[in-house]
Amino acid sequence: MLTVPTPRPRPDEVAIKAVASSLHIDEIYAAQGTALGRFYGPKHLSPDQPHIMGSAVSGVVVGLGSAVDRYHLGDEVIVIPDKEPEAGSWATYRCVDQRMVTAKPPAITHHQAVATTMGACVAWGAITMSGVDRGGRCIVVGASGSIGSMMTAYLASLRCTVTAVGSGEHQQLMLDNEAHEVVDYRTLNFADHTNRSGQSADAVFDCVGGSDIERDGFRALGDQGVFVTVVGPMKYLGKTKLSWFATARVFGYVLRRIVVTRFRAKRYVFGEKPPRRVIHEALAQSIQHDIHMPIADVLPFDLHAVKDAVKAVLEHRAKGRIVIQISR
Predict the structure, then answer these.
(1) Has domain 13-114+293-325 been given CATH number 3.90.180.10?
(2) What is the pTM of this model?
(3) What is the pLDDT of residue 83?
(4) Could you tell me which CATH number the domain at 118-275 has?
């Protein structure tokens, strides 16, 4: 832990006293300098220029820049996740451009806000990009993960019939998210299961990644179906440090698949929208249908506790979002 000067807001910024933050695996990958970190990770570290981790934050406005006209002292707010990995929230105070802040709905707590917002934005953005109709037949691959859990619950709130694909040990979690049925990927191929049922999918949502998931996803789709991935052609993109050439191949593959399938019956979509465009709809849907990310643990803002939690997240041992209590 370091003691640094309290930040002062620039003209367009609000100063926020953080109440809670949370752990997201992508921001850990970024700090480690793996796939996402090659672009956004810390380049020069020193005690005078520390890398302060953390993107999700919910707290109270305690300072206003001279040009701020949207917020007042004492407002409870959430920092909107950026489309690029950001950092700075594992700190008692943070200054953020007022455009990247939204009022925290009174119906959710600070803990729920930091646990839910990131997954909600990604999941709801993917669903809106899919164009799936209310009541459609959908498959969610990786349905027991943080984003997959939100997708499953959101689709169920739209009266979609959802097949949740995950490990059998998480069956109850997926059923609690109102999945119609659960397919254990270790014992059953979801595309084979779908084809045997005679009811093809309108949309397949991929939260895992990999060419095998894409191949099976297209096999499970109906003639006008859409395959929506939030990961791409590599499983757990971000975990492995890629060369510039390998990184370019990943992005090139995604772009090529989008273009090639755009005018075909079965489409490939890389399903993410800028969080600023979806956060209000996503949170409104969450509140209306009581959809929240499971919280695995709430930790004190303590170095040893956070270090242990980072290890648990990297080893995929956390059964839900880990929240850090920054202040009261």
Answers:
(1) yes
(2) 0.90
(3) 56
(4) 3.40.50.720
